[in-house]
Give the backbone structure.
Amino acid sequence: MEYKQYNGFGLSRLGYGAMRLPEKDGRIDREVASTLIDKAIKGGVTYIDTAVVYHAGDSEVFLGEVLKNYSRDSYCLASKFTINASPDYKTMFEEQLQRLGTDYLDFYLMHGIGDSTAQRYIDEGAVDYFLEQKRKGRIRFLGFSTHASPEVLKKFVSHHQWDFAQMQLNYFDWNFSHTEEEYNILRDNNIPIVVMEPVRGGRLADLTPEANAMLKVAHPEWSIASWAFRFVRSLPQVQVILSGMTTLNQVEDNLATFSSDNNFTEKDREILFEAARLFRSQVHIPCTSCRYCCETCPSEINIPEWLKLYNRSKIDGGWVIKRFGDAVESKGVPADCVACRECIKQCPQGIDIPSLLEELTDALR
């Protein structure tokens, strides 16, 4: 495992993101998830990230159970305050510590600041309260995760000297979004970066056949997903790279990637960016399967799964929607959308979900 020094801590470059733990019957499959956590920790992972909204709160409960098997000083634990889940930051923090079975958190974040929420974290007292908890030793390092525009990010960064920040960073967004600008804002303010969505919700683990072939010709021994990690590892401001590992194969592949030197050359970077351009031409919807949209959907539509099918149809043809529509695990179907637009408010990517569900409805007829 590769480690990088951070304020006297040797943090593993690979972190375990507990947002996409394996499930069974709609709940975390504790037996399988425990095996994955154990494999990761024994493989050298020391950074574990969760949040109150992950798995509807069960992620923190599960980690509180499984991490009892390990010495508290053998790992660093990160969680977050989510203002949209509840504005009562004092109660939420105490409940989080209880669920996680600890009296302090190594890393704590203002969760998912956006253009509509960033100022609320400041104005409603959350930032000042958690700075106080840091002074008391109940939080070691205080930071934030961001989906904000560069302009809002600059303003939030200027509030005080943050210990770290978490941002969505991958080679696709680096090329086709304002990710590089966000990275530079944090770098210029000397803020270490924890990366989320390095493989863009798993979408960059398997591109189109043409883009995959381009990468395999260059490095037959590298998995497609490992290209994404190697790019992010090459950025000097990056401290930890999170992966929401759901299967044993993902854990093993990631451990292999981070146990070797990151021999990622400028030529590799050029090849990867060319593959990204080819991939982009064949992908329509930039959904990362974060599932924030599902939490507020009154029709209980499994939006990421329907959008995944839609994206596949853009690559394989429109017949895919009718042939595989019945296989989508979702209580609600696209036709059940009431166009309340709550999903758009929750979507970090700003996707016009109701319009896409309307297109899916037409395609399913």
Observations:
- The mean pLDDT is 93.
